[in-house]
Design brief:
Residues 310-338 form the C3H1-type domain. Residues 352-361 have a biased composition (Basic residues). This protein is 38% helix and 15% strand. It has 15 helices and 14 strands. Strands 1, 2, 3, 4, 5, 6, 7, 8, 9 and 10 form a ten-stranded mixed beta sheet that branches. Strands 11-12 form a two-stranded parallel sheet. It has a two-stranded antiparallel ribbon with strand order 13-14. A hairpin with an 8-residue loop joins strand 13 and strand 14 (468-469). The radius of gyration is 25 Å and the shape is globular.
């Protein structure tokens, strides 16, 4: 679990473990009440899907958005969701340095003070569910997708034996037994909780087709439907990372690990940071998996320059840049995210120091010229270039890495488990750190009041320098199947035709 420091600026412990509840056909009824409570009380819900395939990669990234939409629609209608991740984040406390905590406990009044300092601790209570799904309809299975899932620990035997059955498309009153997954998605819509994805478009289209109804015939109609389905908005952390925060890479595990590091530096330097509280689950130990997210020692160190080339040779450049490698487990180079981040930090630190030295030398040169005009050379003062203390570097120290890190062959460290639940947690955690860094607190614990509206309703588009905006065009109607179904869910709420 995450350990939460109860003081601002006091001793803080690092994130080490994440606990995830596995939900399958034999325990869904038992877990259902807890899942509903976590969902309905959440500030936002992070969602991720694992799929049996995604279709033709070329048409998925076609130049025209409408062509992409049609290709993804065909994939969503012919492939299936094999696993669904839900991570419910509830903001429970905002604590400013040297001030009493403002709590969101049941029945407690919130402190309405508005003039908080910029540095706050944002505490989120988090419950994460990894739901194994089994589509009852025929669907296409793509070998590369299955190989990827198996390579990252997905158990297809358990999926076929214990997966929760569901069907695609419109409602089927004659479907045998309860359809828990479709009820879960409907609960998300009815609760009007904000939703969060990382690279949202494919997830949204699969959820719509697999757990809601048939996708509309056009992208504009689909976007119009989404504005009604999610009235409190959605956030795509991949878009935020690429276009607002601007990281060197934006694939999920890279962003999570980078934000985890930056969040810890925020704790150490008394800047705003996110703190995560996870229930103990002592009575559910047989249904909970623990994921280790402990940071290595190297993240607080500077890599000696003479060792960089050897480390670079051990890393898979393709994976480092994009988060995937066509060779998969057969790749002979490391997919270790922490090593990739260590190398990126070295490059970025080196660039910052060069810029700092050039800027300082230029200023020093100008100062020297001015001094010649005013003072005698004999009384000029020598100026030493400043050390770079920008962004976290005050926490970095030069060390000599252990000799065994440079030995060949390098230990091949694969990317994370890629379970849908863990990916959903990573997505939600990323947003929590963005809220801590960019958001603002005014007494409300609702996402719409936390100062992150600029992040809402913009979806990342691969290969494009602009997002897909979730807005209802004045020239587009919502789809008929959506209107018919949504009217039943929102009785008494007027819908535009």
């Amino acid at each position: 679990m995450f350990f939460i420091d109860k003081t601002c600026g006091g001793k803080n412990r690092k994130i080490e473990k994440v606990k995830i509840i596995f939900v399958r056909s034999y325990n869904i009824q038992t877990i259902w009440p807890s899942l509903m409570l976590a969902l309905k009380s959440a500030t936002y819900v992070a969602i991720d899907t694992e799929l049996s395939g995604i279709g033709d990669r070329k048409t998925l990234n076609a130049r025209q958005i409408e062509e992409r939409y049609k290709s993804m629609s065909e994939s969503a209608k012919s492939r299936s969701i094999v696993s669904l991740g839900f991570s419910c984040f509830k903001l429970t406390e905002v604590t400013a340095c040297n001030r009493s905590p403002v709590t969101n406990g049941d029945g407690d009044d919130c402190n309405d003070e508005n003039n908080f300092p910029k540095s706050n601790k944002w505490v989120f209570s988090v419950q994460t569910f990894n739901i194994t799904a089994l589509c009852s309809d025929e669907y296409i299975v793509e070998p590369p997708s299955l190989e990827f899932l198996v390579d990252h620990g997905f158990d297809f035997n358990k999926q076929y034996a214990k997966g929760i059955s569901y069907y695609r498309g419109p409602d089927r009153p004659d479907f045998p037994g309860p359809s828990f997954l479709r009820q879960l998605f409907i609960s998300v819509l009815v609760s009007e909780v904000p939703v969060v994805f990382h690279n949202a478009l494919m997830d949204l289209m699969f959820l719509y087709q697999n757990l809601y109804t048939n996708l509309p015939t056009s992208s504009s109609m689909f976007l119009a439907d989404l504005t009604e389905m999610f009235p409190n908005g959605m956030i795509d952390t991949k878009y935020v990372t690429d276009f607002q925060h601007r990281m060197p890479a934006s694939y999920l595990e890279y962003v999570f690990r980078k934000r985890q590091r930056d969040n810890y530096f925020g704790i150490e330097s008394h800047r705003s940071y996110s703190a995560i509280d996870i229930p103990n689950y002592a009575k559910m130990s047989d249904q909970v998996i623990v994921c280790n997210v402990k940071l290595p020692q190297s993240y607080t160190t500077d890599i000696p320059e003479e060792q960089i080339d050897k480390l670079k040779d051990s890393v898979c450049e393709v994976f480092g840049g994009h988060g995937w490698c066509g060779k998969g487990s057969k790749c002979k180079r490391s997919h270790d995210i922490d090593l990739i981040l260590d190398l990126d930090q070295f490059v970025q630190t080196k660039k910052r120091r060069k810029r700092k030295r050039r800027r300082h030398n230029r200023e020093n040169s100008e100062l020297s010229e001015e001094s010649k005009e005013t003072f005698d050379d004999s009384i000029q003062e020598e100026v030493t270039p400043m050390e770079n203390v920008e962004e976290n570097e005050c926490h970095v120290k030069d060390i000599t890495l252990p000799a065994d890190i440079l030995k060949k062959p390098v230990e091949i460290v694969r990317s994370g488990s890629h379970r849908a639940g863990f990916d959903a947690f990573m997505t939600g955690f990323i947003l929590s750190t963005y809220i801590a860094q960019y958001g603002s607190y005014n007494g409300s614990f609702l996402l719409k009041d936390l100062g992150v509206d600029q992040m809402k309703n913009s979806i990342y588009l691969t290969g494009k320098d602009h997002p897909l905006n979730i807005v209802k065009s004045s020239f587009s109607k919502t789809s008929k199947e959506h209107r018919d179904k949504f009217m039943k869910l929102k009785v008494g709420r007027p819908l535009e035709s």
